[in-house]
UniProtKB/TrEMBL annotation, chains A, B:
Lineage: Bacteria, Bacillati, Actinomycetota, Actinomycetes, Micromonosporales
GO biological process, one term: DNA-mediated transformation
Domain Smf/DprA SLOG: 108-308
Domain of life: Bacteria
Family to which the UniProt record says this protein belongs: Belongs to the DprA/Smf family.
Record's protein name: DNA processing protein
Organism per entry: Micromonospora olivasterospora
InterPro entries per record: DprA, DrpA_SLOG, WH_DNA-bd_sf
Amino acid sequence: MSRDEELLARVALTWLTEPGTWSVHRLVDRLGPAGALDLLLDGGAPEESLRATVAARSRQGDARAVAADALARAERLGARVVAPRDEEWPVRVGDLRRLVLKGGDRRVDRETAPPLCFWVRGAWPLNEAFDRAVAVVGARAATPYGLHVATEIGYGLADRDWTVVSGGAFGIDAAAHRGALNAGGLTVAVLACGVDRPYPMGNAALFDRIAETGLLISEWMPGADPLRPRFLIRNRVIAAATAGTVLVEAAARSGATQTVNRALAIGRRAMVVPGPVTSAMSVGAHEMLREQPSARLVTGVPHVLEEVGRIGADLAPPARAPQQPRDLLDDDATLVLESIPRRGAVGVDRLAARAGVDVRTALRKLSLLEELGMVRRRDDGYALATGGARSPGTAS
Amino acid sequence: MSRDEELLARVALTWLTEPGTWSVHRLVDRLGPAGALDLLLDGGAPEESLRATVAARSRQGDARAVAADALARAERLGARVVAPRDEEWPVRVGDLRRLVLKGGDRRVDRETAPPLCFWVRGAWPLNEAFDRAVAVVGARAATPYGLHVATEIGYGLADRDWTVVSGGAFGIDAAAHRGALNAGGLTVAVLACGVDRPYPMGNAALFDRIAETGLLISEWMPGADPLRPRFLIRNRVIAAATAGTVLVEAAARSGATQTVNRALAIGRRAMVVPGPVTSAMSVGAHEMLREQPSARLVTGVPHVLEEVGRIGADLAPPARAPQQPRDLLDDDATLVLESIPRRGAVGVDRLAARAGVDVRTALRKLSLLEELGMVRRRDDGYALATGGARSPGTAS
């Protein structure tokens, strides 16, 4: 089966049955995506409830046509779909196969299968972005204390070359993303809706900044609504794709504590920032520390690095090669390279002005960068190639 | 040996060698207090350093004479000495026999023997006061947050009939004592100096209130100075005499965390209140939670009771008998009883006025209370007997 056929089937399956559905995941294991899709569309789902879901969705449209339409729309948006056979697939999410939650009566506790595909906005290859990644999650109605701490942790992690992953929500999520952006680091928002219309709208400017320098990713196709259950289904990805999850402020029994529980259940580090016992916004954090002996109290970035660094040392080779193309560049070349926008192209005059070099130097450095495969010339100016220093993907 | 002789020897030993000295404790075990004292005074201490200490002290006075003098002074102050053979001895401090601290190079880590005696101001028998007791300790330079939490915990514990034990210091200690006093409960200050001159002076009014309704206790004789090492030596008593220790705010490596470590080392509950990670005054608390897996995060009185209540249920019969003499009293008798001051006597007219009953009723209830052994008539009016409702010692 071609990559395109497979992708189309994966997208169609996600639309037909929602991400995380175990019986679908098992069918894909057995029959491949296209075979599983055919079976489901023929009414052959192994469970009555799934048959009903498929039938209901099918009345709204032809799954393959919907998928083809979404893929076309994504291309126009500059988004891409990534599937397990792609080199950039973040393999850690496969550990969701081991995720079994106790007492899971709710759909969100039962449907925890690995994702079938990701929609992605942003240039970084997923595998690279998640290579050294920590999730920072917490309350939407965060206090100034929590916002301060989340920003500091986001900043500190990014500053030490760790990717900061969160859900793009108000409060702690946004603070963590912002901290990472302020450090000039990489941050990933894992969304529960289409990457073309990230939710909440109030964070639109933040999402734009994230898409420029980091990644917006989602299991749901462009246009998908941020339905409430989707946030909880999404949380398993935040937990699985990262080396550990840091909880900063959570009310009692919150969605963020649920992410931490998922992280623990598949052997990721669970880290919790305490707060004043007088604050309702720390009740969930303190509960977690009391009830989960494996959850570790952390007070800042050094503690977080101690936890995830250990994982890294145990399971992975040194995460970044010491010698990269960017290390070969002189100061002017670096300035020029860093003055090219993450997305889109720029003319040489503007680029020279941004970089603070004369046009002649800019042109010389641009031809060097082109030779190194870091920059490419387009009709509308110079743009980053997929690979480039402090920019996505020497690996791709 | 008479009780008086033994007491005199214990007091003399404490003065000669400072509390907590293991070699002295072992001598007392073998030879009794008087025998141990004789041996030491004859220069027969088993260690050179102890011989030097005894010789130095002996040049300042005759140990038995100093002890006799202290006992006489204590009597004038209304203080008493309590020794292990007394019924009211708080037996839990005997668990200090098991206290072995790792890496103990400092005197305070080596000299952790059980106390030889206690000097006591206040009417409650020690055993009763410590029957259901929790220590609340923490930073002197506490923040408003810490003071608030310590006061709340002191209040809540006292309100549920637990004795609040602390060290009488500024900050968290004082807040815990005050909380207990505000709840009309029992609080004990364990001092590192004479009970006649509790330190710090700035807490003098607090100490007066504690002495009236609770206890001031010390291993050091009246007049003893609050020398710095004595505070740390004292801490082992706070840890040992209580069912558990709650730490509220502590800077890194503070004396209060040392108390918690002693509590853990002899199997007491160690409880730690977290705080903002941005506060230097919570650094020691968070360190404790990270480094001591047995230390439990608590956010308030219910969590504390869960910890120490469990101990109580495991090791002790229900701590208070449901039926006590006071349960037999009618409302007027209770009013009269509760209007008698904790210390000193009161005339019947003033008593009736305080209780809000007429003098005839007051007299009738007083004779009932006398018969029940709860009140005794003195030349200067009516006073509490050693036993009385909400007052010291139905047990003695």
